[in-house]
Amino acid sequence: MNWERLFSARILERGYDYYLCNAVKNMEVTEDSITADVLGTENYQVEITLEEGEILDMYCSCPYAEDGKNCKHMAAVLYEWTEGDDQGIYPDREELTTKKSGAKEEIRKLIQETEPEIVEEFLADLLMQDEQLMLRFKRTAGKNLSEEDIERYFHQVDEITWRYQGRDGFINYYEADGFILELQQILMNDVRTMINQKNYKCAFRLMNYIFETIGEVDMDDSDGGTGMLADEIYNDWRELLDYVDEKEKHEMFDWFSAHLNGSVIDYLEEYIYQIVLNEFPEKEYQPLKLKFIEKKIKNAASKEKSWSRDYELGRWVVPYLDLLKKQKDGEEKRESFFWQYWDNSSVRRYYIDQCMKKRDYEKALGALDDSIYFDQSYRGLVIEYEQMKKNIYQIQDRKQEYEAQLWKLETEVIPGSLETFKELKKLYSKEEWISRREEIFQKLPPRSNIERLYKEEKLYDRLLNCVVNSHGMFALQEYGGILQKEYPEEILQKYRTEVEKMAVRTSDRKTYQYLVSLLRTMKKMKGGSKLVEEIVRDWRQRYRNRRAMLDELNRL
How far apart are CA 262 and CA 273, in angstroms? Predict the structure, then answer.
């Protein structure tokens, strides 16, 4: 049975790619079914039903298969079954290869038996009708590609884009796979042959055109095709850098540098950013990189103070400072640079990291105090700085400062932190801790998640008070399981209070279903069955006009 006939050519290609990438996991094969997970942007579940070796039905949890279509994930599973370690009932691939070889020999024989003029005329007509085939033939024949040929390749990329975009200029989820696949085929066939034939300049230009195209096109990329294609181009760029001569390498550097200007969408620009910073290791490129990055830093610094300005500046600071390490006067320049851009958090963080590596803890503490002042409006950064200070005091065995910093963290910086709470507890004896924890409880500001600390200390009476006085279901569901053993009546009444409040303001089936699930939970508690029956009787009378509610209550 040839299962491949159940799929279109492009779906088979994508399925085979998934199979080659080992995306098929947890496959289980029985006499009447195949089940597996296929890993992509999300994990999809595939189930294939068999009957006497024939495919009876196929299911996949992906959006494409919702309309009854056979998807690439199904194909990937079937490839794994027939070509992987657990091969199925299909013929050996060698047998298929032998058949293809035989067919090719028949074609060769037909050509040899045909007049050369007829073959030439037929081929000329065929190549005239198919520009892509003509370029492939020219490339296979080892002919040099002209500027006009490169433009033809660009036109092919444009034609593929226009075809998939349609009238609205948008490539939807179902078409995105085919679009990415066709561009991938150009990379695998045309660009790869150009590289093999040492036509590096043409290969580079075509890769770049595809890269820019996928950054500009408006597309539902839920399956991550853009990233997959960008990864392939990135690897091809790196490979090219090993092959090209000095002149071509300089041209590549110039192109990459020129395109770090916002002309490429940000998440794709990251690929170019990595190429410029991590490749071109030769000494001659170091001053070029420094000069280029200096311009980027000055441009970012000239902008009005904002989060985006700090991010852009920080993005170039670290590689610049790393490059300065390799310069003769680099250390002096680095010191000057630190103070020039000291208001930038990335500059200070880099300086702090260098101090920590040198074990110059006093300078690190000074920089951390400056950072807490400069970045006081960024709570996440302040927490990080304060924790670093605590770690330095601990390393230096400065017990008083370490203890004071823990108290500051627990009661001011990250109030109610369970991790810091436990760290503080280790500093005191059992007797001391009882009074110390009370001090912490008193100093904690409102809404500091003190419940976690009560749970840690097994202060269940206080925890119960927090839960009973809380709003909504969160605290009840978080701690109710622990408390219901000692306080079953109180927890049950809290459930009743909350479900009654929800019932008053609820009018949609989804929430009715949630309410019924809560009632089920209540029934499992001591005395819960009787209370739930009472609630249900009351609701049936009070909300008798809510058909959806009554319908869900019937399921209880």
Answer: 11
Radius of gyration of the chain (CA): 34
| Global pTM exceeds 0.85 | no
Q: Which of 4, 160, 136 is nearest to 83 (CA)?
A: 4
CA–CA distance from 246 to each of 21, 30, 240 (Å)? 35, 59, 12
In terms of Cα–Cα distance, which of 555, 466, 468, 538 is closest to 504?
Answer: 538
What CA–CA distance (Å, rounded) separates 127 from 360? 71
Measured between alpha carbons, how far is 466 from 151 in angstroms, rounded to an integer? 71
Pairing of strands 24-29, 33-39: antiparallel
206-210 contacts, C-beta under 8 A, 24 or more apart: 206/150, 206/153, 206/154, 207/233, 207/236, 207/237, 208/255, 209/153, 209/154, 209/157, 210/157, 210/183, 210/186
Say how far apart CA 175 and CA 67 lie, in whole Å. Answer: 14
Which amino acid makes up residue 346? S
pLDDT of residue 86: 44
Six-digit token pair at 263? 């002309």
Three-class SS of residue 114? coil
* Pair 369, 351: CB distance under 8 Å: no
The whole-angstrom separation of Cα 111 and Cα 118 is: 9
Query: Tokens at residue 216, please?
Result: 């500009």
How far apart are alpha carbons 371 and 535 in whole angstroms?
A: 57
Please work out, in degrees rounded to the nearest 5, the angle formed at the alpha carbon of residue 241 by the alpha carbons of 235 and 244.
135
> Could you read off the pLDDT of 475-527 as tens digits, one per residue?
999 999 999 989 999 999 999 999 999 998 877 888 899 999 999 999 999 89
Q: Which helix (H) or strand (E) holds 34?
A: strand 33-39
Say which residue the tokens 């060698």 belong to: 94
Dump pLDDT digits (tens) for 119-145.
788 878 787 777 777 777 776 777 777
Q: At what angle do helices 285-301 and 266-278 cross, to 10 degrees?
A: 140
Taking a C-beta distance cutoff of 8 angstroms, is the pair 233, 225 a contact? no
Instruction: Give the pLDDT confidence of 424-439 residue by residue, as tens digits.
Output: 999 999 999 999 999 9
Residues in the chain: 556
